[in-house]
Amino acid sequence: MNAFLRRLLRRTLKVAPVRDAYADIARLLSNEKVEQVLDIGACRGTVSLRLARLFPTATIHAFEPHPESFTQLEANVRPVPRIRRHPLALDDAPGEAALRLNAVPGSSSLLPRPHDGRTYHNPEARAIGEAKVRVVTLDAWAAGERVERVDVIKLDVQGAELRVLQGAERVLRHVKLVYTEAQWYPTYEGAALLCDVWAHLRRFGFSLFHFYNTWGGEDGQVVQGDALFIHAELRARALGASGSVRTQSFGA
């Protein structure tokens, strides 16, 4: 979730205390060789720039299909040649799709907003039209770009996260860490929930490390947040059996 959208949500929704996911990512990967990092749903490039700082020798691939956001992304990351920009949407099948544009660009999605039930939408995040965008699978993109191994995936595509991962089965075999937005309650039609994303990643040897940026409605319903998954091999190297055990409250 981008920072602007998070500020808007805080006006009307209860937000849990913030824990810095990128500090955790840096710690978990501090002794790892990181060469290829994917920022899927890069918006204006804020996270891409932070990832470039965290991994100073890695190539960062920033994917952003929103036309206006991609223009801003290009301008913002141009001073860092290691950040490669891709005006693409990722999905479980290639082709062309309608990106549903939103007044808050970071809320734009391949999926429509739900029509039924309570949806916990910020009133400022309203639909403003559509744009045709090119869609590829992550596996096809990696093969075309001759990217043999991806180390880190950051994923924020407004409900289509599972579909991206379903199109990345070859790529996921070598990934160390996945940091993804996840939904507890669907805010887009057909959006995968956290349990669906978790079940898919378990097939590839990933387990949950922590939740971040969780928010919900005034009625107490938890709606959305971010989740960090790490591969079993990374867990063994970075945490292992020697890690200290302590009791900690993680908040609501």
Write the layout of secondary structure elements.
Blueprint: H1 3-12, E1 14-15, H2 21-28, E2 36-40, H3 46-54, E3 59-63, H4 67-77, E4 83-86, E5 89-90, E6 95-102, E7 127-136, H5 138-145, E8 152-155, H6 161-166, E9 177-183, H7 194-202, E10 206-216, E11 222-231, H8 232-238
Parallel strand pairs: 2-3, 2-8, 3-4, 5-7, 8-9
Antiparallel strand pairs: 1-10, 6-7, 9-11, 10-11
Report on the structure:
- This protein is α/β, with parallel strands linked by helices.
- The protein has one domain (3-238): Rossmann fold (3-Layer(aba) Sandwich), CATH 3.40.50.
- Helix content is 27%, strand content 27%.
- The chain has helices spanning 3-12, 21-28, 46-54, 67-77, 138-145, 161-166, 194-202, 232-238, and strands spanning 14-15, 36-40, 59-63, 83-86, 89-90, 95-102, 127-136, 152-155, 177-183, 206-216, 222-231.
- An eight-stranded mixed β-sheet has the order 1-10-11-9-8-2-3-4. The protein has a three-stranded mixed β-sheet with strand order 5-7-6.
- Helix 6 links the parallel strand 8 (152-155) and strand 9 (177-183).
- The longest helix has 11 residues, at 67-77.
- The radius of gyration is 17 Å and the shape is globular.
- The two termini are 18 Å apart.
